Automatic annotation (TrEMBL):
<keyword id="KW-0472">Membrane</keyword>
<feature type="domain" description="Receptor L-domain">
    <location>
        <begin position="291"/>
        <end position="346"/>
    </location>
</feature>
<dbReference type="InterPro" id="IPR051648">
    <property type="entry name" value="CWI-Assembly_Regulator"/>
</dbReference>
<dbReference type="GO" id="GO:0009986">
    <property type="term" value="C:cell surface"/>
</dbReference>
<keyword id="KW-0449">Lipoprotein</keyword>
<keyword id="KW-0325">Glycoprotein</keyword>
<dbReference type="InterPro" id="IPR000494">
    <property type="entry name" value="Rcpt_L-dom"/>
</dbReference>
<dbReference type="Pfam" id="PF01030">
    <property type="entry name" value="Recep_L_domain"/>
</dbReference>
<keyword id="KW-0732">Signal</keyword>
<dbReference type="GO" id="GO:0098552">
    <property type="term" value="C:side of membrane"/>
</dbReference>
<dbReference type="InterPro" id="IPR036941">
    <property type="entry name" value="Rcpt_L-dom_sf"/>
</dbReference>
<keyword id="KW-1003">Cell membrane</keyword>
<dbReference type="GO" id="GO:0030476">
    <property type="term" value="P:ascospore wall assembly"/>
</dbReference>
<dbReference type="GO" id="GO:0009277">
    <property type="term" value="C:fungal-type cell wall"/>
</dbReference>
<protein>
    <submittedName>
        <fullName>Sporulation-specific protein 2</fullName>
    </submittedName>
</protein>
<comment type="similarity">
    <text>Belongs to the SPS2 family.</text>
</comment>
<dbReference type="GO" id="GO:0005886">
    <property type="term" value="C:plasma membrane"/>
</dbReference>
Length: 469
């Protein structure tokens, strides 16, 4: 009977709640069974913490164990999942990491990877927009090439890298490296949209330094003191100002398309030195003493002032051509020897080498100015020429003189010609022909390269004869 009464009483209370909720009584410790705000979760319960990986809880050192999965020689990343899996296992990667050209993600995030003993290679990809590695401190080579959508590189703690090789990154405009790098062997940056390259200002020596075709790069400053193989700067913004004021020694150096240059401390060139198609008006190298290869000043249209005041020896050739504003070639006051040929062409009026004693190659000199005196080269003092390469050709305005000499500087023959109307070519040598008429038997050929051509033809015919017979 009591059970029935309880059931009836519960039903009445339910009906009353539906009719007027405010009159409902709370039962069972005042709990309203129809309250929609009832708390269903125990607020005193402890929420389980996210388990941290080893990389987040410890700072890896050389003694930190490296997972076997991180010891492969090569990792080919085809998608973001591959990369996430790799960084979840490896704080250090022993081999190369290459991002596939089919990688469709816009970002390459190296995440927790701190060291890459091999190379990081991203090539021929049209999707990658950004590469970042906030923990990456070292790798061997950073090779980025043909990334048409690539805009941003962010490696803020990178300290060690052997090779920088960036090519065909036409919209790359943002790089964060923060100048932590002190040693690099090779730096090649080509075809980017960068406006400055100041990430390597703590680097003093490299093997290769090649900055080219960065069309918005108007200023380039470096603290490099030595370049052991090749220094090349060309085809960047035409307004580029190049500051190599710390450079002391270089193997080969080519500078092209520069509006201003500072190489005042350069003292040693172990091979060749070339300045081509620049816009600067002044070139000062007061400390340079020797060039062990060829020295070239070519097509520098505004060049007026040149200083090679301490150069005594050029072991290769000397080429000075088409420097429109250069009126005199008189900036080698101490030069004593040229190991190769000389080639001078332009509108200069005077050539002066007060200390020059020997040119081991031939000489080709051509000026549009009538004021140039060719006699200094074609009429040797004391009967012996300082030119020992066999041929001397000097043109001043419309007049041309040619001289043939032996290896001791003895004159073997002379020839003069003129482009003026009514002037005829004349020649003489040191011997007479039979019949008493004078004839030039040993004069220099009209073209300075004819002898080379003949030798080449003879060699080819000899080889063909040997093959056929």
């Amino acid at each position: 009977m009591l059970n029935c009464l309880n059931t009836i009483l519960g039903f009445l209370i339910l009906v009353l709640q539906l009719i007027n909720p405010s009159t409902a009584k709370n039962f069972n410790n005042d709990l309203n069974i129809l309250d929609h705000n009832i708390v269903l979760v125990n607020t005193n319960a402890t929420v389980p913490k996210k388990e941290k990986t080893n990389f987040e809880t410890i700072n890896p050192t050389k003694d930190t164990k490296i997972d076997d999965a991180c010891k492969k020689s090569f990792y080919y990343i085809e998608n973001a999942a591959n990369l996430i899996d790799l960084q979840a296992k490896c704080w250090k990667v022993m081999g190369n990491i290459e991002i596939s050209s089919n990688f469709s993600g816009s970002m390459v995030d190296l995440g927790l990877i701190k060291e890459i003993e091999g190379d990081l290679i991203v090539k021929n990809n049209k999707h990658v927009f950004r590469i970042q590695g906030y923990n990456l401190e070292s790798l061997r080579k950073l090779e980025l090439e043909s990334l048409t959508a690539f805009v941003s590189l962010d490696l803020p703690v990178l300290k060690e890298v052997s090779t920088i090789d960036w090519k065909v990154l036409p919209i790359l405009s943002s790089v964060v490296i923060n100048g932590n790098i002190k040693k690099v062997k090779s730096i090649v940056i080509s075809d980017t949209a960068l406006t400055s390259i100041d990430y390597f200002n703590n680097v003093n020596e490299v093997d290769i330094f090649n900055i080219n075709n960065n069309r918005f790069l108007e200023s380039l400053f470096t603290k490099l003191e030595s370049v052991t193989k090749q220094l090349t700067v060309h085809s960047n913004a035409r307004e580029l100002e190049l500051d190599l004021s710390s450079l002391h020694t270089v193997e080969n150096m080519t500078v092209k398309d520069v509006s201003k240059i500072n190489v005042a401390k350069l003292a040693s060139v172990n091979s060749s030195l070339e300045f081509i198609e620049n816009q600067f008006s002044s070139l000062e190298l007061p400390l340079l003493t020797k060039v062990q290869g060829t020295l070239g000043l070519i097509d520098n249209k505004n060049l007026k002032k040149v200083n090679f005041s301490n150069v005594t020896d050029i072991q290769g050739g000397l080429m000075i051509a088409n420097n429109t504003e250069l009126i005199k070639i008189d900036f080698f006051p101490k030069l004593r020897q040229i190991g190769g040929a000389i080639y001078f062409e332009g509108s200069f009026q005077k050539i002066d080498f007060p200390e020059l004693k020997l040119v081991k190659g031939s000489a080709y000199i051509k000026s549009s100015s009538d004021e140039l005196n060719c006699e200094e080269f074609t009429t040797p003092k004391h009967g012996r020429s300082i030119i020992r390469g066999g041929k001397i050709e000097c043109t001043s305005g419309m007049k041309r003189k040619m001289l043939s000499v032996d290896e001791d500087g003895n004159v073997l023959g002379k020839q003069e010609s003129s482009s003026e109307p009514g002037k005829k070519e004349k020649g003489k040598n040191n011997t007479k022909s039979q019949g008493g008429s004078k004839k030039m038997e040993n004069s220099a050929p009209k073209d300075i390269f004819v002898d080379i051509f003949k030798t080449s033809v003879y060699t080819v015919l000899t080889i063909l004869f040997a093959i056929v017979f």
